Amino acid sequence: MKDLLELRNEIDQIDNEIVSLFEQRMHISEQVAQYKIRTGKKVFDKERESEKLKTLSSKASNEFIRHGIWELFEQIMSVSRKKQYQLLGAEGMLEKPDFTKVDRLVEKKPTVVFQGVEGAYSQQAMQQFFSEQHDSFHVETWRDAMEAIRRKQADFAVLPLENSSAGIVSENYDLLAEYDAYIVGEQVLKIDHALLGLANADETEIRTVYSHPQALMQCSKYLEEHKEWEEISLKNTAVSAQKVKQDAKVHQAAIASPVTAELYGLKVIKEGIQDNQTNCTRFVIVTADPVYQKDARHIALCLELPHTVGSLYHTLSHFIYNNINMINIQSRPKPDKNWEYRFFIDIEGNLEDEGVQNALGGLKEETSFLKILGTY
Ligand SMILES: C=C(O[C@@H]1C=C(C(=O)O)C=C[C@H]1O)C(=O)O
């Protein structure tokens, strides 16, 4: 039997040949790219790649090798495509995202819409993002907020997208995919929930607690200690505080921000009742036109993939290959197709970065649907 050193020497020789052949192959792929630049032909030729995978894997001597050849050539062709996207990109032949770069997001005093009533966390996020320089109004639902910017009644809407302990606000992800609206900013707000009641209320006498489902979720440990309380979901935490004040019943309480206690004349029965003391919600600032601030560092994407083996894996390879850091990935069911999903992915980068343009060019060709939800 050959010793290890001998075997490794043989492997090294074969690898050297593979490297040299790979270089030759890539050089030809570059020439194919030049042909595509001249003719406008798309980079990704799915049929040609399927044919190649079938032909090459059929040459294998056993099932294990067949599988290996398949994987290997999928990767080789994927790298070959990435080089072609780069070359097409350098010639300005990749479709440019239809976004306008602006120096400043806010030129004149903007009108901002938020969901809920006075004192809502969305209002607090809005105040932090726009400081004092804005007019605002509130609407009943997140969809109403989207409609308000669509009809140009407001310049911007503020929507909660995810909470550090309760997770995503799925309805707003779906609205971002549905509407022609674009994320232009984000505001992270520290969320401290309090139990609020009438001036003469007492924790021991509470029977019903009102809040938004997300806030109820974020206070689940505290509510576990009070299993006898009936939990009722309302559209907003501040709406819940308003209701407790209006109903004027001593056994009713709301989970909301301590700010709303002052606004609606309620007493703070207990403060800091959220499970997680670092509880934060990430809000996004949305507008009707595809604009972005010149120093934007994040891009939010929504994409749909064919139901085939490895499609998500190949999608993510565009980020990896272009050295792009992915900061978030979520999936949501497609509205009219059971058990099919769309992905929401946030990446780091600016639309002017070469790597971002190459990755987006590749994704545009290789996914069944790609929308840039905004850049901030
Ligand atoms: C090289 C080409 O471009 C792409 C890469 C392929 C490859 O590396 O074999 C095959 C098909 C295309 O998706 C080509 O079109 O032939």
General description of the model:
The chain is an alpha/beta fold. Among the domains are: 13-93, Chorismate Mutase Domain, subunit A, CATH 1.20.59.10; 194-270, Periplasmic binding protein-like II (D-Maltodextrin-Binding Protein, domain 2, 3-Layer(aba) Sandwich). The chain has twelve helices and 17 strands. Strands 2, 3, 4, 5, 6 and 12 form a six-stranded mixed beta sheet that branches. α2 runs antiparallel to α3 (63-90) and α11 (311-321) runs antiparallel to α12 (354-366). The model has no long low-confidence stretch (mean pLDDT 95). Bound molecules: the ligand C=C(O[C@@H]1C=C(C(=O)O)C=C[C@H]1O)C(=O)O. Ligand ISJ binds next to α1, α2 and α3.
- Report the principal-axis shape: elongated
What is the average of the pLDDT values? 95
From the helix content, strand content and strand pairing, which structural class follows? alpha/beta
Q: What is the CA-based Rg, rounded?
A: 27 Å
Q: How many helices in DSSP terms?
A: 12
Biggest beta sheet attributes: 6 strands, mixed
Strand content: 25-35%
N-to-C span:
62 Å
Which ligands accompany this protein? the ligand C=C(O[C@@H]1C=C(C(=O)O)C=C[C@H]1O)C(=O)O
The CATH homology group name of one domain: Chorismate mutase
Total number of strands: 17
CATH architectural grouping of one domain: Up-down Bundle
Q: Flag low-confidence runs.
A: none
Q: Percent of residues in helical segments?
A: 40-55%
CATH class type of one domain: Mainly Alpha
The helix/strand series, from N terminus to C terminus, equals HHHEEHEHEEHEEEHHEHEHEEEEHEEHE
CATH topology heading of one domain: Chorismate Mutase Domain, subunit A
Catalytic activity: prephenate + H(+) = 3-phenylpyruvate + CO2 + H2O; chorismate = prephenate
EC number: 4.2.1.51
Organism: Agathobacter ruminis
GO molecular function, one term: prephenate dehydratase activity
